[in-house]
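REQUEST FORM: STRUCTURE PREDICTION
Request ID: SP-0412
Submitted by: Lab K.M.
Chain count: 1
Length (residues): 280
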Amino acid sequence: MVLDREINNENGAIKIVGILLLRNEDIYIERIVANIESFCDEILIADNASIDRTPEIVRTLQSKFPKIQYKLIKNPSESHQLIEGLAGQPVWIFAVDGDELYDRSGLSLLRRKILLGEYKEQWMILGNVLHCIELNLEKQYALGYLAPPCRSMTKLYNFEKIVSWEGPCPERLHGGNITFRPGYSNENRLMLYDELEWENSFFRCLHLCFLPRSSKDKGKFGKHFVRENISDKNSRSLFSRILIAFSVLGITKGSKYKRKKYMRGPIVEKEIKSFLSDVI
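STATUS: Completed
RESULT:
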């Protein structure tokens, strides 16, 4: 897939490239992009045919932040094509979804550490996460389940450690075949969430997977309803897809995987002021 301008790194300096895969994300996407903008040198946004205000919002952001490139795609698999050519370069790939709100000030510290080479031997970094079941922007708190003990889903990869990441991939950074440089493997992971408590973490995310993310979702969500992810949809049988498409027998969509992985341990309340800085 051809970008509006190709990403290259001829001088060999470390770069951080954000890659967002979106579909109907107009509730939080403005804040999500603003919070990662200063962390990334380039931001690639792949929009999988959104029908809410997502394209309008992203176009406005693009006029404010020239580092944003916006692409309409027909299939989520096209998102991986935007970054697979960066394998082997001194580039960190930061994948963000439309339900992932990052601590902007924390990312500033993480960026300095990356550019100083502190994590140059790592293939992947996993951060702290609060999987939110409630978000109160006015009172600046969130309720949810922490990782750990839940699974972390942050996606920050050091592409210098691989020779290639070839598809087919159902979406960016999922599936496919990775060829590592000699001496490196998928085991070269830094689990920051095991080293740092939530309050002390500089790589932390509010995962809004149990909340509506689009104006098109309003009125459709029950308690803690969660969208299916791409792997959920791909694993359904053809018969199940037909039943859901026609709402036969009241069948509804929902990700069992997310409930299983992201609803572990006690519900906690966290102050979220550092996630809500007015930067737009």
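NOTES: Confidence is low (pLDDT under 50) at residues 230-236, 243-252.
Reviewed by: T.R.
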